[in-house]
């Protein structure tokens, strides 16, 4: 495929700004060693005159509401490797790249079931780990021209926002771009972070900024590793009818007091297909890691526009044989459902306080994820409503370097779900039969 040509690089600043300081919560700080979050939208619409300038201008306008994204991290060192961290809204700016690629059409990205390798070059680079946000932009945008369309790639520092907040920002940018009256947005972000009343902040915690061995974005993601195992990314599309069928089957065989959701049914289906395709020993433990949103679970719930991270990681572990035996899918779905349901206000508060006593910083490059699946993103995000003034997107893509990542997106048809899964090619091929049959 063609090579990317960078046509221009600019720093976009908010039209108006302040030097507000935003202290960070454990939900934010846990991502300091993690890679950035990359999401992008594909449009079947070639650029016309002044459109790049229009995107820059609307970006500057929306940053007035989302000032942390134009700021930088500040990591203050104290004694004995103790640090504190906050976002300073200093309007240092967002990186904006205008690029082009020859001989690549929308169909070349949209139609293959395997994500073409060139898609990763549609996303700008802002550092290996999120803690580099002290000197790197917290948000970077790349608009890449194709022969008959464009791709808008967003790379954001995960310390600053989770997926919910990232799509809130993208939705708002699109709203202003397509002509929002008086440059206003329909849902204002709540920038102040949530802290229990008795918690002093900024939080001080032990942290060691270690040099990175390579410029990868995740575990075991060096080119040699990827080539050795033929790591690929494949798209799986599930129609609404298929998802409802999976859900119905599970709920028929599970205690009537438990209701397995459509997403739980689908993700358990994927988990079991992965185990079957890898041919694990029946006694080997297989892990399914996913994120739980805490916004509606706290009492009182966080406000709808809460802007930042409000997620915690959870993991279900079962032996391969337990998942593959008769009724194994039901058992897996029940364990997932039980773990999610257990996250009451009390448990979330306990998790928060536990982190303060024993801070855990995610290190994805240390996960031995031959026996891991990591579920990310959500089908509930408004992906296909992002009309910048030239129509809605035809596809969404992510860029991951972590083996075992499952990115979950809404499908373009109502009620459908798309999965972008990164695993060795032979495993993805084997999963095809189990997932689509």
Written account of the structure:
The chain has 437 residues and is an alpha+beta fold. It is 27% helix and 24% strand. It contains 11 helices and 16 strands. The chain has helices at residues 26-29, 51-63, 106-110, 163-177, 223-229, 240-252, 262-278, 320-324, 328-341, 345-357, 425-436, and strands spanning 4-12, 21-23, 37-43, 72-77, 82-88, 94-101, 139-145, 150-156, 204-206, 231-238, 285-293, 311-319, 372-377, 395-398, 405-410, 417-424. The chain has a 6-stranded mixed sheet. The protein has a 6-stranded mixed sheet with strand order 10-16-15-13-11-12. Strand 7 (139-145) and strand 8 form a beta hairpin. Helix 2 (51-63) packs across helix 4, helix 6 (240-252) crosses helix 7 (262-278) and helix 7 (262-278) crosses helix 11 (425-436). Mean pLDDT is 91; it is low at 211-221.
Unreliable stretches: 211-221
Mean pLDDT score:
91
How many strand elements? 16
The number of distinct helices, counting runs of at least 4 residues, comes to 11
**What structural class do you assign from the helix and strand content?**
alpha+beta
Shape: globular
| Rg, Å, rounded | 21 Å
The order of strands across the largest sheet is 1-6-7-8-3-14
Largest sheet: 6 strands, mixed
User: What proportion strand?
Assistant: 15-25%
Share of residues in helices: 25-40%
Element order, helices and strands? EEHEHEEEHEEHEHEHHEEHHHEEEEH
Distance between the termini: 32 Å
């Amino acid at each position: 495929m063609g090579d990317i040509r960078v046509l221009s690089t600019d720093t976009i600043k908010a039209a108006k700004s302040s030097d507000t300081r935003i202290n960070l919560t454990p939900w934010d700080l846990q991502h300091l060693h993690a890679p950035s979050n990359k999401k992008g939208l594909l449009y079947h619409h070639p650029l016309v005159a002044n459109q790049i300038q229009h995107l820059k201008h609307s970006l500057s306008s929306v940053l007035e509401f989302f000032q942390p994204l134009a700021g930088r991290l500040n990591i203050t060192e104290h004694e004995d490797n103790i640090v504190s961290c906050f976002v300073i809204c200093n309007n240092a700016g967002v990186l904006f790249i205008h690029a082009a690629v020859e001989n690549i059409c929308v169909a070349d990205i949209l139609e293959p079931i395997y994500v073409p390798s060139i898609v990763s070059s549609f996303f700008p680079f802002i550092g290996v780990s999120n803690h580099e946000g002290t000197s790197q932009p917290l948000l970077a945008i790349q608009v890449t021209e194709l022969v008959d369309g464009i791709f808008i790639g967003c790379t954001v520092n995960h310390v600053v926002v989770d997926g919910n907040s990232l799509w809130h920002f993208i939705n708002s940018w699109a709203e202003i771009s397509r002509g929002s009256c008086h440059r206003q947005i329909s849902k204002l972000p709540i920038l102040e972070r949530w802290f229990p009343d008795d918690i002093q902040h900024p939080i001080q915690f032990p942290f060691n900024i270690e040099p990175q061995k390579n410029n990868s974005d995740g575990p075991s993601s060096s080119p040699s590793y990827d080539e050795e195992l033929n790591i690929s990314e494949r798209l799986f599309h599930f129609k609404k009818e298929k998802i409802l069928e999976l859900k119905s089957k599970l709920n028929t065989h599970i205690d009537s007091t438990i209701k397995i959701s459509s997403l739980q049914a689908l993700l358990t289906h994927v988990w079991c297909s992965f185990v079957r395709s890898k041919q694990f020993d029946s006694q080997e433990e297989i892990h399914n890691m996913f994120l739980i949103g805490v916004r509606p679970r706290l009492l009182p719930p966080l406000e709808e526009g809460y802007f930042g991270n409000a997620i915690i990681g959870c993991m279900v572990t079962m032996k391969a044989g337990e998942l593959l035996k008769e009724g194994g899918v039901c058992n897996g779905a029940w364990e997932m459902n039980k773990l999610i349901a257990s996250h009451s206000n009390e448990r979330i508060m306990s998790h928060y306080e536990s982190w303060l006593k024993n801070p855990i910083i995610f290190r994805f490059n240390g996960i031995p994820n031959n026996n891991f699946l990591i579920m990310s993103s959500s089908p509930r995000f408004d992906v296909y409503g992002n009309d910048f003034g030239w129509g809605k997107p035809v596809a969404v893509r992510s860029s991951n370097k972590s083996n075992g990542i499952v990115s979950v997106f809404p499908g373009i048809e109502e009620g459908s779900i798309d999965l972008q899964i990164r695993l060795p090619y032979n495993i993805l091929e084997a999963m095809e039969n189990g997932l689509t049959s």
